[in-house]
Amino acid sequence: MAPYETDDSTGAAQADDELRAQRRRKAARYVVPVTVVGVAAATIGLVPALADSGDPNLPKITAQELINKIAKSDVQQLSGTVKISTDLGLPDLGGLESGLMSGAAQGGGDGSSADPSTKLTELASGTHTLRVAADGPERQKVSLLESGAEYSLIHNGTDVWGYDSKSNEVYHSTAADSGKAERHETPATPKDFADEVLKSVDDTTSVKVDGTAQVAGRDAYRLVIKPKQSGTTVGAISIAVDAKTGTPLKFTLTPSGGGAAVIDAGYTQVSFAKPTASTFDFTPPKGAKVTQGDSLDKAHKGDKGDKITKTPGRSTPEELGKNGFDVLGKGWNSIAVLDTGSKGGLPTGSASGGGDLGGFLGSLGDPVSGKFGKGTVLSTRLINALVTDGGKVYVGAVDKAALVKAANAG
User: Fold this and answer.
1) Calpha distance 1→182 (Å, rounded)
2) Domain that holds residue 369
3) Of the N and C termini of the chain, which has fewer Cβ atoms inside 10 Å?
4) pTM of the model
């Protein structure tokens, strides 16, 4: 455990190269906004965890002991309600969603409003209420409650269903075995979320227990994680950990720049009883439009991935290959790098995928220059991205100066 503070043939090869080049050209039109909101959504997914009160009197525990308690937590069944508030400092998204959908369709996406890869980007801004349920690794369900409508994402065995009641559209994908189904954007168990927290804790991190709390009627310890490094946009992360089960109940991320939390996500109600089997049943409603996605087994067999060269950072070569990024730097100052292969900097107008995407990018942009040439930094309160005119994208939870430094060194 890391230290803690106190408490084939030439033709085939050419074909693969051309396929990768096509992917990059298509990605260049919308990779930046997807990266910005996608990383934020992934951060939201770290720990499902809001409403707390009280200061329960619990036995003393060290940071190391609490980390171990999270790691050993073996909760397989739960259900509850989660409230998520996200304030990335983004402008009004307006027509961004339609722009992203159009870009996804041009890049080979299914274009269904029920596709989770596009629907769940809504969590990147505002306040949302989710209903969640899990019964082991084979069955999970998340429902996003909207005004007069609901979006549900269900993983049941080898089936993954997405249903948008507003448009009456259904998205379905399958896997050859249930293990492969987990590769889809399906809800994860609390232990999965805790594992992500453990991976982020290393010698660049300060960890301590900072009192107790009561979340969704349950007694919890408050674990506070702070970067030791300067240059990161992350100020602190607070996680309320259920005292009995070791399950994370509340997650709050505050930025280094101060102000309100960037992400405040937590249970308002939770039960660790086994959900009924019918919770995970789904049959497409009559008249619904059903989009059949590629089977996960087929999709992953056909994706050889790009060749990634290992550079100093936090990700293993396997993780880099999976995510399609190279990583520069260490710890909280890690920066993901993508070479889009597209010259000319930010996409605008029709090249950006349609809708108001070009205007959205422009509202975030800040021109910069350096040894790397010229580019634009897209800024939020948490994730920043530098898009160079040479076609490279640098993304991380770091400030503008760190991105320019990385580009110059690259």
Assistant:
1) 27
2) 305-409
3) N
4) 0.72
